[in-house]
Amino acid sequence: MIPGPGEPRTAVVVGAGLAGLSTALHLRGAGVEVTVLEAESTAGGRCPDVTVDGYRLDLGPTVLTETDQLARAFAAVGETLEDHLTLVDLDPAYVAHFADGSSLSMHTDPQRMHDAIRELAGERDAAGYDRFVRHVQRLYDVELPHFIDRNLDGVHSLIRPALPRLAALRGFGRMDRLIASFFHDERLRQAFSFQALYVGVPPHRARGMFAVVSAMDLVHGVTYPVGGMHAIVRAMVDVARAHDVEFRFGEPVDAVRAAGDGYEIHTDQAAYDADAVVLTCEPGRAATLLADPDVLRPDTTPAPSCVLLAAGVPAGLSGAGHHHLHFGTSLRGAMDDITSGRPMRDPSFLVSVPTRTDPTLAPAGSDVLYALFPAPARHGSGADVDWHDLRGAYRAHMLRSLTVAGYPVNDLVGEHLITPQDWEDRGMPWGTPFSSAHTFRQSGPFRQPNVIGPRLVLAGSGTTPGVGVPMVLISGRLAAERVLAGLGQRRFTRHG
């Protein structure tokens, strides 16, 4: 996969989000000449940079795990992650707050977590936690190298010794039943199953294999980059530019066409020729650019959406902890509301206060608040929800819930409220930023394939391996591997 002398190789990456940046770095590290075309005026995609009146707000992902995947992108061009980003380990990773008024600080350190669970629920569940940690680590050891961190080519690629090992670890059973085998206390079952929402499936419908997400954040740990999540984007762009990756911002791609032994990429400003193309948009958008509806996997089920509120809080907030999980009386009831196409009546939600870790994100004495309330996608019965009409009432519902939870939000600065309708207006299918759900038939080799044609590849959350920051970074590397496995020798040119 290393180019030889006199073999110029070229690729165009469409999209400068995390998947596109990962792709660009891995391709450039292999000697490919890379141009990144981005419709927006800045990089970031679903991890944008928003600063209002001195408050830096995250309007995309806020939970960062598995930073070794990020390090691999920098290492591809001979750089070290630590030279470009300052990462802070969060302890606790989360604080879980339950409907009965109790709470649990969720530590990465196994002994501290054992002690916290024993204090909350007794020795039996503390011992269950010890077994749980060992179990999800075994799941991780099986799943990551064999089913997540590699390109899969159809069902036959699963036929390997790891498959029966995954079955033996109850990876194909129901996730809620797997969690219940370790924890008797309902509060703990909630706290250790909410991760299913990251993959877009309620815990009582998710497969046990997705308990691997617990290994990623509650065992391996959660970190936060100084400067906010967009600091990751800034660092990746800076490193890519230093290694001669070309970026062209404000240049949306209109079409991609086969041309000779490569591709012609049309924007509203120019046309480009390249050996290979990596599209980091949603598969439906890729099908439009290629004028080929057969690219799109039929009958896709979307993940739930969310309503996001992000704002500065001039008066500041009391308490400690960066990420907070607030559970209603019934997590399953809240999820049933969403899958039935209605907003949660008894909400469970995530609150992040990133200024607990990085005070530079807000003026002195102030805080930044990020609240994410899961909501139905604009699909099926969820498409009937009129978010234009509901917007004001749902905002008031969120503010009441936040106030009851201990976050006084009467005075907000730079407020951003994003509903499923807003996500859809921003070009996200089904009005969800979480792409397609990780149902069984939309995971692994059953998910939207990343290969579309010769040296024509997808990356991003809509393809393999899936949703989440580590996954889209992996998707970029897997896309690069696909390109490098079959890259031609056509030189990049620009017309117009």
Helix and strand layout, with pairings?
Elements: E1 10-14, H1 18-29, E2 33-38, E3 50-52, E4 55-57, H2 67-75, E5 87-89, E6 94-97, E7 103-106, H3 110-121, H4 123-148, H5 162-168, H6 175-180, H7 186-191, H8 212-219, E8 223-225, H9 230-242, E9 246-249, E10 253-259, E11 262-267, E12 271-274, E13 276-279, H10 283-290, E14 305-313, E15 323-326, H11 331-339, E16 349-352, E17 367-375, H12 387-404, E18 413-418, H13 420-425, E19 451-453, E20 456-458, H14 469-485, E21 493-495
Parallel strand pairs: 1-2, 1-13, 2-9, 6-15, 13-20
Antiparallel strand pairs: 3-4, 5-8, 6-7, 10-11, 11-12, 12-21, 14-17, 14-18, 15-16, 16-17, 19-20
Description of the structure:
The chain has 496 residues and is α+β, with helices and mostly antiparallel strands. It has helices at residues 18-29, 67-75, 110-121, 123-148, 162-168, 175-180, 186-191, 212-219, 230-242, 283-290, 331-339, 387-404, 420-425, 469-485, and strands at 10-14, 33-38, 50-52, 55-57, 87-89, 94-97, 103-106, 223-225, 246-249, 253-259, 262-267, 271-274, 276-279, 305-313, 323-326, 349-352, 367-375, 413-418, 451-453, 456-458, 493-495. The chain folds into 3 domains: 10-50 and 66-86 and 228-300 and 439-495, FAD/NAD(P)-binding domain, CATH 3.50.50; 108-219, no CATH class; 304-431, no CATH class. It has 14 helices and 21 strands. A 7-stranded mixed sheet has the order 7-6-15-16-17-14-18. Strands 9-2-1-13-20-19 form a 6-stranded mixed sheet, with helices on one face. A 4-stranded antiparallel sheet has the order 10-11-12-21. Helix 1 crosses helix 2, helix 1 (18-29) runs parallel beside helix 14 (469-485) and helix 4 packs across helix 8. The chain starts with 9 loop residues before the first strand and ends with a strand. The relative contact order is 0.19. InterPro entries: Amino_oxidase, Carotenoid/retinoid_OxRdtase, FAD/NAD-bd_sf. It comes from Flexivirga alba. Belongs to the carotenoid/retinoid oxidoreductase family. Pathway: Carotenoid biosynthesis.
